[in-house]
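Hi W., the NAP complex you wanted:
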Amino acid sequence: MRIGILGTGNVGRALGGAWSAAGHEVVLGSRKPDETAARGGNVPVVSTQAAVASADVVVNATPGTASLDLLTSLGAPALAGKVLLDVAVGFTDDGGLSHPGESLGEELQRAFPDTRVVKSLCTLDRLVMIAPESLEGPSTVFLSGDDPTAKDTVRRLLHDLGWSPDSVLDLGGIATARGQEHFSLLFIPVAQAIGSYRFGLQVVKLSDDVTESYEQAQAAAESAS
Ligand SMILES: NC(=O)c1ccc[n+]([C@@H]2O[C@H](COP(=O)([O-])OP(=O)(O)OC[C@H]3O[C@@H](n4cnc5c(N)ncnc54)[C@H](OP(=O)(O)O)[C@@H]3O)[C@@H](O)[C@H]2O)c1
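Structure:
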């Protein structure tokens, strides 16, 4: 797959290196490619325009407070028809969310209706994104997006980072990106409590037997009252 990653920061470089090693054709898109060329390592650094132009999948790895302006400057036609994998979260200076009542993912989908936005990976530290097999136990990674085929494309890219099919949980449409982005309000205190940003999170269901017997007991109590 041809992947254009916007941002030459921590996340862009980690994902770029991992997908390149998995055999994808990857470039990093930078606002100042002449100054950031060395950041890419084996992954070429090009302009943001060139990164988008050559890509089947564009990855937004920029600060969530700057993403809309950057993508708008590239223009909706340049992004039309592409999958936009959005891993960004917007933070205010005081550590709050820049999209407290909704999500950046929804804002991007509204701004670029002809682009298929998928939110994923933003609940994880960059090293966990690319090395899930190194966690001490299984972890869940989430998907949010309105277009099923775009989500399938992202599933394949997650697989190439090491995420097994049963670790990927499709939450539904792009509105569910709120939950992923707002998870950062819990992510940071958890990281502070355990002394590391490098942890996973697994969704674990209560056994059906326990749920059923609890519901039967409750129904019996209600009918007796
Ligand atoms: N770090 C993590 O582990 C992690 C985990 C989950 C989610 N995220 C989210 O992923 C996104 C990227 O995180 P990161 O840690 O890679 O951030 P970072 O190290 O600060 O890198 C962001 C990159 O975005 C580009 N950029 C474009 N417009 C920008 C602007 N106005 N101001 C600053 N940089 C701009 C820059 O690349 P050029 O200078 O080359 O243009 C910059 O290097 C953020 O939204 C973050 O919340 C991060």
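The domain at 2-224 is CATH 3.40.50.720 (Rossmann fold).

W.
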